[in-house]
Protein backbone atom coordinates (compact mmCIF):
# COMPACT_ATOMS: atom_id res chain seq x y z
CA UNK A 1 0.00 0.00 0.00
CA UNK A 2 2.71 2.48 1.05
CA UNK A 3 4.96 1.47 -1.84
CA UNK A 4 2.06 2.14 -4.22
CA UNK A 5 1.60 5.60 -2.70
CA UNK A 6 5.30 6.39 -3.13
CA UNK A 7 5.24 5.28 -6.77
CA UNK A 8 2.11 7.32 -7.41
CA UNK A 9 3.75 10.38 -5.82
CA UNK A 10 6.77 10.00 -8.08
CA UNK A 11 4.49 9.68 -11.12
CA UNK A 12 2.71 12.89 -10.18
CA UNK A 13 6.02 14.67 -9.56
CA UNK A 14 7.44 13.93 -13.03
CA UNK A 15 5.11 16.24 -15.00
CA UNK A 16 5.51 18.90 -12.33
CA UNK A 17 9.30 18.72 -12.66
CA UNK A 18 8.96 18.98 -16.42
CA UNK A 19 7.76 22.58 -16.04
CA UNK A 20 9.86 23.57 -13.01
CA UNK A 21 13.18 25.43 -13.19
CA UNK A 22 15.51 24.25 -15.97
CA UNK A 23 14.42 22.55 -19.16
CA UNK A 24 15.25 18.88 -19.48
CA UNK A 25 16.39 19.01 -23.10
CA UNK A 26 19.10 16.50 -23.93
CA UNK A 27 21.77 16.97 -26.56
CA UNK A 28 21.98 14.61 -29.51
CA UNK A 29 25.71 15.21 -29.83
CA UNK A 30 25.32 17.82 -32.60
CA UNK A 31 26.55 21.41 -32.70
CA UNK A 32 25.21 23.69 -31.43
CA UNK A 33 25.09 22.35 -27.88
CA UNK A 34 21.75 23.54 -26.51
CA UNK A 35 21.55 22.50 -22.91
CA UNK A 36 19.11 23.83 -20.39
CA UNK A 37 21.73 24.78 -17.83
CA UNK A 38 24.51 25.82 -20.15
CA UNK A 39 26.11 22.45 -19.45
CA UNK A 40 27.61 20.12 -21.99
CA UNK A 41 27.52 17.26 -19.55
CA UNK A 42 23.97 15.85 -19.40
CA UNK A 43 24.30 12.09 -19.08
CA UNK A 44 21.75 9.28 -18.61
CA UNK A 45 20.88 8.22 -15.07
CA UNK A 46 22.66 4.99 -14.18
CA UNK A 47 23.57 3.37 -10.89
CA UNK A 48 27.20 4.28 -11.57
CA UNK A 49 26.51 7.97 -12.29
CA UNK A 50 24.03 8.63 -9.48
CA UNK A 51 24.92 11.65 -7.37
CA UNK A 52 23.58 10.54 -4.01
CA UNK A 53 24.01 7.86 -1.36
CA UNK A 54 21.16 5.47 -0.64
CA UNK A 55 22.47 3.18 2.15
CA UNK A 56 22.76 3.93 5.86
CA UNK A 57 23.14 2.18 9.23
CA UNK A 58 21.03 3.22 12.22
CA UNK A 59 21.28 2.40 15.92
CA UNK A 60 19.58 3.67 19.04
CA UNK A 61 18.37 3.02 22.58
CA UNK A 62 14.99 3.50 24.16
CA UNK A 63 12.37 2.84 26.83
CA UNK A 64 9.53 0.32 26.25
CA UNK A 65 6.27 0.66 28.21
CA UNK A 66 3.74 -2.19 28.14
CA UNK A 67 0.39 -0.47 27.60
CA UNK A 68 -2.27 -2.99 26.55
CA UNK A 69 -1.98 -6.08 28.78
CA UNK A 70 -3.15 -7.64 32.03
CA UNK A 71 0.10 -6.49 33.64
CA UNK A 72 1.12 -3.05 32.42
CA UNK A 73 4.08 -0.71 32.82
CA UNK A 74 1.94 2.43 32.97
CA UNK A 75 0.13 3.24 36.22
CA UNK A 76 0.52 -0.22 37.71
CA UNK A 77 -0.99 -1.47 40.96
CA UNK A 78 1.02 1.07 42.94
CA UNK A 79 0.19 3.92 40.61
CA UNK A 80 3.74 4.07 39.27
CA UNK A 81 5.42 3.50 35.89
CA UNK A 82 7.94 0.71 35.41
CA UNK A 83 10.51 1.55 32.75
CA UNK A 84 12.25 -1.11 30.72
CA UNK A 85 15.08 -0.70 28.22
CA UNK A 86 15.59 -1.42 24.53
CA UNK A 87 18.10 -1.06 21.72
CA UNK A 88 17.92 -1.40 17.96
CA UNK A 89 20.21 -1.54 14.93
CA UNK A 90 19.11 -1.46 11.30
CA UNK A 91 20.40 -1.46 7.74
CA UNK A 92 18.49 1.10 5.70
CA UNK A 93 18.03 1.30 1.91
CA UNK A 94 16.42 4.34 0.28
CA UNK A 95 14.40 3.41 -2.82
CA UNK A 96 13.23 6.94 -3.71
CA UNK A 97 13.59 10.34 -2.04
CA UNK A 98 10.38 9.55 -0.11
CA UNK A 99 10.42 5.77 0.46
CA UNK A 100 12.88 3.23 1.86
CA UNK A 101 13.13 -0.22 3.45
CA UNK A 102 14.85 -1.02 6.77
CA UNK A 103 15.95 -4.42 8.10
CA UNK A 104 15.89 -3.94 11.87
CA UNK A 105 16.92 -5.95 14.95
CA UNK A 106 15.44 -5.01 18.35
CA UNK A 107 16.37 -6.24 21.80
CA UNK A 108 14.94 -5.16 25.13
CA UNK A 109 13.14 -5.84 28.35
CA UNK A 110 9.73 -4.64 29.50
CA UNK A 111 8.81 -4.42 33.18
CA UNK A 112 5.22 -4.58 34.32
CA UNK A 113 2.92 -5.43 37.19
CA UNK A 114 2.67 -4.20 40.78
CA UNK A 115 6.43 -3.94 41.44
CA UNK A 116 9.86 -4.24 39.86
CA UNK A 117 11.00 -7.85 39.81
CA UNK A 118 14.39 -6.74 41.13
CA UNK A 119 12.59 -5.87 44.38
CA UNK A 120 10.77 -8.09 46.85
CA UNK A 121 7.00 -8.53 46.58
CA UNK A 122 5.35 -5.90 48.82
CA UNK A 123 2.57 -8.34 49.80
CA UNK A 124 1.21 -11.79 49.02
CA UNK A 125 -1.27 -10.49 46.43
CA UNK A 126 1.26 -8.46 44.45
CA UNK A 127 2.48 -9.75 41.08
CA UNK A 128 5.43 -8.39 39.11
CA UNK A 129 6.73 -9.45 35.70
CA UNK A 130 9.42 -8.74 33.16
CA UNK A 131 9.77 -9.85 29.55
CA UNK A 132 13.04 -10.15 27.65
CA UNK A 133 12.56 -10.03 23.89
CA UNK A 134 14.49 -10.19 20.59
CA UNK A 135 12.85 -9.20 17.31
CA UNK A 136 13.74 -8.99 13.62
CA UNK A 137 11.49 -6.97 11.34
CA UNK A 138 11.27 -5.47 7.87
CA UNK A 139 10.02 -1.88 7.96
CA UNK A 140 8.78 0.43 5.26
CA UNK A 141 10.02 4.01 5.70
CA UNK A 142 8.04 6.95 4.27
CA UNK A 143 9.56 10.43 4.30
CA UNK A 144 6.40 12.50 4.77
CA UNK A 145 8.36 15.75 4.58
CA UNK A 146 9.51 14.96 1.05
CA UNK A 147 6.01 13.89 0.03
CA UNK A 148 4.55 17.18 1.26
CA UNK A 149 7.45 19.47 0.35
CA UNK A 150 7.37 21.31 -2.98
CA UNK A 151 9.55 19.43 -5.47
CA UNK A 152 11.25 22.66 -6.56
CA UNK A 153 12.21 23.61 -3.02
CA UNK A 154 16.01 24.00 -2.87
CA UNK A 155 16.12 25.32 0.70
CA UNK A 156 18.70 23.60 2.96
CA UNK A 157 16.09 21.93 5.16
CA UNK A 158 17.41 19.83 8.06
CA UNK A 159 14.24 18.35 9.64
CA UNK A 160 12.20 15.48 8.24
CA UNK A 161 9.18 13.55 9.52
CA UNK A 162 9.28 9.80 8.81
CA UNK A 163 6.64 7.11 9.20
CA UNK A 164 7.46 3.44 9.77
CA UNK A 165 5.43 0.22 9.56
CA UNK A 166 6.34 -3.44 9.13
CA UNK A 167 6.18 -7.03 10.31
CA UNK A 168 8.66 -9.51 11.69
CA UNK A 169 9.30 -12.34 14.10
CA UNK A 170 9.72 -12.00 17.87
CA UNK A 171 11.13 -14.31 20.53
CA UNK A 172 10.64 -13.69 24.25
CA UNK A 173 10.85 -15.02 27.77
CA UNK A 174 8.29 -13.71 30.27
CA UNK A 175 9.05 -14.07 34.00
CA UNK A 176 6.48 -13.71 36.77
CA UNK A 177 7.32 -12.93 40.39
CA UNK A 178 5.18 -13.17 43.50
CA UNK A 179 5.89 -13.44 47.20
CA UNK A 180 6.77 -17.09 46.50
CA UNK A 181 9.59 -16.14 44.11
CA UNK A 182 10.22 -15.83 40.37
CA UNK A 183 9.16 -18.34 37.70
CA UNK A 184 9.35 -18.54 33.89
CA UNK A 185 5.78 -17.86 32.78
CA UNK A 186 6.01 -18.13 28.98
CA UNK A 187 8.71 -18.71 26.35
CA UNK A 188 8.26 -18.20 22.61
CA UNK A 189 10.86 -19.04 19.96
CA UNK A 190 11.35 -16.91 16.83
CA UNK A 191 10.44 -17.82 13.23
CA UNK A 192 7.27 -19.68 14.23
CA UNK A 193 3.70 -18.96 13.14
CA UNK A 194 2.81 -17.72 16.59
CA UNK A 195 5.89 -15.46 16.84
CA UNK A 196 4.89 -12.94 14.18
CA UNK A 197 4.43 -9.33 15.29
CA UNK A 198 3.85 -5.87 13.83
CA UNK A 199 5.15 -2.43 14.69
CA UNK A 200 4.39 1.06 13.38
CA UNK A 201 5.20 4.59 14.38
CA UNK A 202 6.84 7.88 13.50
CA UNK A 203 10.26 9.46 13.77
CA UNK A 204 11.60 13.01 13.57
CA UNK A 205 15.05 13.27 11.98
CA UNK A 206 17.55 16.12 12.28
CA UNK A 207 20.41 16.33 9.80
CA UNK A 208 23.52 17.00 11.91
CA UNK A 209 25.79 16.91 8.86
CA UNK A 210 26.03 15.10 5.53
CA UNK A 211 27.04 11.87 7.30
CA UNK A 212 24.99 11.72 10.52
CA UNK A 213 21.29 12.15 11.36
CA UNK A 214 19.78 12.27 14.84
CA UNK A 215 16.34 10.70 15.19
CA UNK A 216 13.71 10.36 17.87
CA UNK A 217 11.10 7.64 17.31
CA UNK A 218 7.89 6.50 18.94
CA UNK A 219 6.87 3.00 17.85
CA UNK A 220 3.83 0.91 18.81
CA UNK A 221 4.52 -2.81 18.92
CA UNK A 222 1.68 -5.33 18.49
CA UNK A 223 3.07 -8.63 19.80
CA UNK A 224 0.08 -10.79 18.70
CA UNK A 225 0.42 -12.74 21.96
CA UNK A 226 -1.71 -12.46 25.12
CA UNK A 227 0.98 -14.04 27.32
CA UNK A 228 3.77 -11.58 26.49
CA UNK A 229 3.17 -9.66 29.75
CA UNK A 230 4.04 -12.63 31.97
CA UNK A 231 0.48 -13.02 33.21
CA UNK A 232 0.56 -16.75 32.58
CA UNK A 233 -1.73 -19.07 30.65
CA UNK A 234 -5.03 -17.92 29.20
CA UNK A 235 -7.83 -17.47 31.74
CA UNK A 236 -5.41 -17.84 34.68
CA UNK A 237 -5.75 -15.71 37.82
CA UNK A 238 -3.74 -12.92 36.21
CA UNK A 239 -4.48 -13.40 32.50
CA UNK A 240 -8.21 -12.81 32.77
CA UNK A 241 -9.03 -10.96 29.57
CA UNK A 242 -11.64 -13.25 28.04
CA UNK A 243 -11.18 -11.82 24.55
CA UNK A 244 -7.51 -12.87 24.58
CA UNK A 245 -6.26 -9.80 22.74
CA UNK A 246 -2.65 -8.98 21.99
CA UNK A 247 -0.28 -7.54 24.59
CA UNK A 248 1.14 -4.33 23.08
CA UNK A 249 3.71 -1.73 24.12
CA UNK A 250 5.12 1.67 23.21
CA UNK A 251 8.84 2.00 22.51
CA UNK A 252 10.37 5.49 22.59
CA UNK A 253 13.92 5.59 21.20
CA UNK A 254 16.70 8.04 20.37
CA UNK A 255 19.25 7.04 17.75
CA UNK A 256 21.77 8.00 15.09
CA UNK A 257 21.88 7.16 11.38
CA UNK A 258 25.22 7.01 9.58
CA UNK A 259 24.89 7.54 5.80
CA UNK A 260 27.22 5.40 3.71
CA UNK A 261 28.76 6.28 0.35
CA UNK A 262 31.09 8.74 -1.35
CA UNK A 263 28.55 11.32 -2.47
CA UNK A 264 27.73 14.65 -0.87
CA UNK A 265 24.07 13.94 -0.06
CA UNK A 266 21.80 11.01 0.82
CA UNK A 267 18.76 10.28 -1.34
CA UNK A 268 16.36 11.07 1.53
CA UNK A 269 17.93 14.56 1.77
CA UNK A 270 18.69 14.94 -1.95
CA UNK A 271 17.00 17.51 -4.19
CA UNK A 272 13.90 15.57 -5.31
CA UNK A 273 14.16 17.02 -8.83
CA UNK A 274 17.56 15.45 -9.48
CA UNK A 275 16.28 11.86 -9.58
CA UNK A 276 13.39 12.90 -11.83
CA UNK A 277 15.70 14.75 -14.21
CA UNK A 278 17.83 11.67 -14.66
CA UNK A 279 14.82 9.47 -15.32
CA UNK A 280 13.66 11.98 -17.93
CA UNK A 281 17.10 11.82 -19.54
CA UNK A 282 16.77 8.05 -19.88
CA UNK A 283 13.33 8.36 -21.47
CA UNK A 284 14.62 10.98 -23.89
CA UNK A 285 17.51 8.74 -24.93
CA UNK A 286 14.98 6.03 -25.70
CA UNK A 287 13.28 8.44 -28.11
CA UNK A 288 10.08 8.49 -26.09
CA UNK A 289 7.98 11.60 -26.54
CA UNK A 290 7.88 13.92 -23.54
CA UNK A 291 6.08 17.24 -23.58
CA UNK A 292 8.61 19.54 -21.96
CA UNK A 293 7.52 23.04 -22.98
CA UNK A 294 3.94 24.31 -22.88
CA UNK A 295 4.63 27.39 -25.01
CA UNK A 296 7.36 25.89 -27.16
CA UNK A 297 10.98 26.93 -27.66
CA UNK A 298 11.05 29.66 -30.33
CA UNK A 299 14.83 30.03 -30.57
CA UNK A 300 15.53 26.30 -30.15
CA UNK A 301 18.05 26.89 -27.38
CA UNK A 302 16.74 24.13 -25.10
CA UNK A 303 15.04 26.52 -22.66
CA UNK A 304 11.25 26.73 -22.73
CA UNK A 305 9.73 30.08 -23.67
CA UNK A 306 7.84 30.00 -20.35
CA UNK A 307 11.00 31.20 -18.58
CA UNK A 308 13.41 32.05 -21.43
CA UNK A 309 14.80 35.57 -20.79
CA UNK A 310 16.28 35.80 -24.30
CA UNK A 311 13.79 34.56 -26.86
CA UNK A 312 15.99 35.34 -29.87
CA UNK A 313 19.22 33.54 -28.96
CA UNK A 314 21.42 33.17 -32.10
CA UNK A 315 21.55 29.67 -33.55
CA UNK A 316 24.56 27.78 -32.24
CA UNK A 317 24.98 29.75 -29.02
CA UNK A 318 25.27 27.92 -25.73
CA UNK A 319 22.94 29.31 -23.07
CA UNK A 320 22.54 29.37 -19.31
CA UNK A 321 19.50 28.12 -17.41
CA UNK A 322 17.57 31.30 -18.15
CA UNK A 323 18.14 30.99 -21.91
CA UNK A 324 20.70 33.81 -22.06
CA UNK A 325 23.65 33.25 -24.42
CA UNK A 326 26.85 32.53 -22.49
CA UNK A 327 29.52 35.22 -22.24
CA UNK A 328 32.28 33.49 -20.25
CA UNK A 329 34.60 36.49 -19.91
CA UNK A 330 31.74 39.03 -19.48
CA UNK A 331 33.12 41.35 -22.16
CA UNK A 332 29.79 41.87 -23.93
CA UNK A 333 30.60 39.47 -26.79
CA UNK A 334 28.79 36.14 -26.48
CA UNK A 335 30.93 33.01 -26.71
CA UNK A 336 29.51 32.17 -30.15
CA UNK A 337 31.17 35.27 -31.65
CA UNK A 338 34.01 35.72 -29.13
CA UNK A 339 37.42 34.83 -30.60
CA UNK A 340 38.94 34.95 -27.10
CA UNK A 341 36.39 33.23 -24.86
CA UNK A 342 38.34 33.34 -21.59
CA UNK A 343 39.94 36.80 -21.96
CA UNK A 344 37.83 40.00 -22.13
CA UNK A 345 38.25 42.32 -25.09
CA UNK A 346 36.36 45.03 -26.99
CA UNK A 347 33.48 44.23 -29.33
CA UNK A 348 35.29 45.78 -32.31
CA UNK A 349 38.14 43.27 -31.83
CA UNK A 350 35.80 40.25 -31.66
CA UNK A 351 36.18 40.00 -27.88
CA UNK A 352 39.99 39.80 -27.90
CA UNK A 353 42.29 42.23 -26.06
CA UNK A 354 44.09 44.81 -28.18
CA UNK A 355 47.40 44.37 -26.30
CA UNK A 356 49.74 41.41 -26.34
CA UNK A 357 50.20 41.29 -22.59
CA UNK A 358 48.76 38.45 -20.55
CA UNK A 359 48.17 34.84 -21.55
CA UNK A 360 48.03 33.70 -25.14
CA UNK A 361 44.40 33.39 -26.27
CA UNK A 362 42.55 31.21 -28.73
CA UNK A 363 41.89 32.59 -32.20
CA UNK A 364 39.86 30.51 -34.61
CA UNK A 365 39.24 27.43 -32.49
CA UNK A 366 37.77 27.63 -29.03
CA UNK A 367 39.18 25.52 -26.19
CA UNK A 368 36.04 24.72 -24.27
CA UNK A 369 36.07 23.54 -20.68
CA UNK A 370 34.19 20.57 -19.26
CA UNK A 371 32.02 20.16 -16.18
CA UNK A 372 31.84 17.39 -13.58
CA UNK A 373 29.29 15.64 -11.42
CA UNK A 374 29.16 16.59 -7.74
CA UNK A 375 32.05 15.13 -5.72
CA UNK A 376 33.42 13.34 -8.80
CA UNK A 377 36.56 13.51 -10.93
CA UNK A 378 35.22 11.12 -13.60
CA UNK A 379 35.27 12.38 -17.18
CA UNK A 380 31.76 11.94 -18.56
CA UNK A 381 31.22 10.35 -21.99
CA UNK A 382 29.55 13.54 -23.20
CA UNK A 383 32.83 15.40 -22.63
CA UNK A 384 34.92 13.36 -25.09
CA UNK A 385 34.05 15.46 -28.19
CA UNK A 386 35.22 18.60 -26.38
CA UNK A 387 38.43 16.94 -25.22
CA UNK A 388 39.14 15.49 -28.66
CA UNK A 389 38.75 18.99 -30.08
CA UNK A 390 41.25 20.21 -27.45
CA UNK A 391 43.71 17.49 -28.51
CA UNK A 392 43.60 18.68 -32.14
CA UNK A 393 43.92 22.34 -31.21
CA UNK A 394 46.83 21.93 -28.78
CA UNK A 395 48.72 19.67 -31.20
CA UNK A 396 48.30 22.26 -33.94
CA UNK A 397 49.58 25.10 -31.76
CA UNK A 398 53.08 25.91 -30.54
CA UNK A 399 52.02 27.01 -27.08
CA UNK A 400 51.75 25.27 -23.71
CA UNK A 401 48.64 25.19 -21.55
CA UNK A 402 47.56 24.94 -17.95
CA UNK A 403 44.81 22.38 -17.36
CA UNK A 404 42.96 24.10 -14.50
CA UNK A 405 40.61 22.20 -12.17
CA UNK A 406 37.97 23.87 -10.00
CA UNK A 407 35.08 22.94 -7.68
CA UNK A 408 31.92 24.48 -6.28
CA UNK A 409 31.73 25.68 -2.66
CA UNK A 410 30.45 22.49 -1.08
CA UNK A 411 32.97 20.71 1.15
CA UNK A 412 36.07 21.96 2.96
CA UNK A 413 38.82 24.01 1.32
CA UNK A 414 41.34 21.18 1.74
CA UNK A 415 39.06 18.56 0.22
CA UNK A 416 38.10 20.79 -2.71
CA UNK A 417 41.76 21.54 -3.43
CA UNK A 418 42.51 17.81 -3.73
CA UNK A 419 39.35 17.18 -5.78
CA UNK A 420 40.20 19.96 -8.25
CA UNK A 421 43.73 18.61 -8.66
CA UNK A 422 42.37 15.12 -9.40
CA UNK A 423 40.05 16.57 -12.03
CA UNK A 424 42.91 18.44 -13.68
CA UNK A 425 45.15 15.35 -13.55
CA UNK A 426 42.48 13.16 -15.15
CA UNK A 427 41.95 15.60 -18.03
CA UNK A 428 45.72 15.96 -18.54
CA UNK A 429 46.09 12.13 -18.61
CA UNK A 430 43.29 11.89 -21.17
CA UNK A 431 44.93 14.43 -23.46
CA UNK A 432 48.34 12.74 -23.21
CA UNK A 433 46.84 9.32 -23.94
CA UNK A 434 45.26 10.79 -27.06
CA UNK A 435 48.45 12.25 -28.49
CA UNK A 436 49.26 15.54 -26.74
CA UNK A 437 52.90 15.97 -25.72
CA UNK A 438 53.18 15.93 -21.94
CA UNK A 439 55.52 18.96 -22.04
CA UNK A 440 52.70 21.14 -23.36
CA UNK A 441 50.46 20.52 -20.35
CA UNK A 442 50.55 21.45 -16.68
CA UNK A 443 47.75 20.33 -14.31
CA UNK A 444 46.72 22.94 -11.73
CA UNK A 445 44.07 22.56 -9.02
CA UNK A 446 42.47 25.78 -7.74
CA UNK A 447 39.80 24.27 -5.49
CA UNK A 448 36.93 26.67 -4.84
CA UNK A 449 39.13 29.76 -5.29
CA UNK A 450 38.31 30.12 -8.99
CA UNK A 451 34.52 30.20 -9.18
CA UNK A 452 32.92 30.88 -12.53
CA UNK A 453 29.97 32.26 -10.53
CA UNK A 454 31.45 33.86 -7.36
CA UNK A 455 27.99 34.62 -6.03
CA UNK A 456 27.51 30.89 -5.31
CA UNK A 457 29.04 31.14 -1.84
CA UNK A 458 27.46 29.23 -0.23
CA UNK A 459 26.20 26.84 -2.92
CA UNK A 460 22.62 27.04 -1.61
CA UNK A 461 22.37 30.64 -2.89
CA UNK A 462 22.49 29.46 -6.52
CA UNK A 463 20.52 27.10 -8.76
CA UNK A 464 22.22 23.79 -9.53
CA UNK A 465 23.25 24.80 -13.06
CA UNK A 466 25.48 27.54 -11.66
CA UNK A 467 27.08 25.20 -9.10
CA UNK A 468 27.64 22.66 -11.86
CA UNK A 469 29.33 25.33 -13.99
CA UNK A 470 31.71 25.97 -11.08
CA UNK A 471 32.68 22.26 -11.07
CA UNK A 472 34.87 22.37 -14.14
CA UNK A 473 38.23 21.96 -15.84
CA UNK A 474 39.27 24.57 -18.39
CA UNK A 475 42.38 25.40 -20.41
CA UNK A 476 44.59 28.43 -19.92
CA UNK A 477 47.48 29.37 -22.19
CA UNK A 478 50.76 29.63 -20.29
What fold name goes in the CATH topology slot of the largest domain? Porin
Shape: elongated
Distance between the termini: 62 Å
What is the quaternary state of this protein? single chain
CATH architecture of the largest domain: Beta Barrel
Notes on the protein architecture:
The chain has helices spanning about 1-20, 145-150, 270-285, 385-395, 415-435, 465-470, and strands spanning about 50-55, 55-70, 85-95, 100-115, 130-145, 160-180, 180-190, 195-205, 210-220, 250-260, 265, 370, 400-405, 440-445, 470-475. By secondary structure, the chain is an alpha+beta fold. The strands form 3 sheets. Strands 2-3-4-5-6-8-9-10 form an 8-stranded antiparallel beta barrel. Strands 12-15-13-14 form a 4-stranded mixed sheet. Helix 4 packs across helix 5 (about 415-435). The longest helix has 21 residues, at about 415-435. The protein is elongated and about 105 Å long. Mean pLDDT is about 80; it is low at about 1-45 and about 355-365.
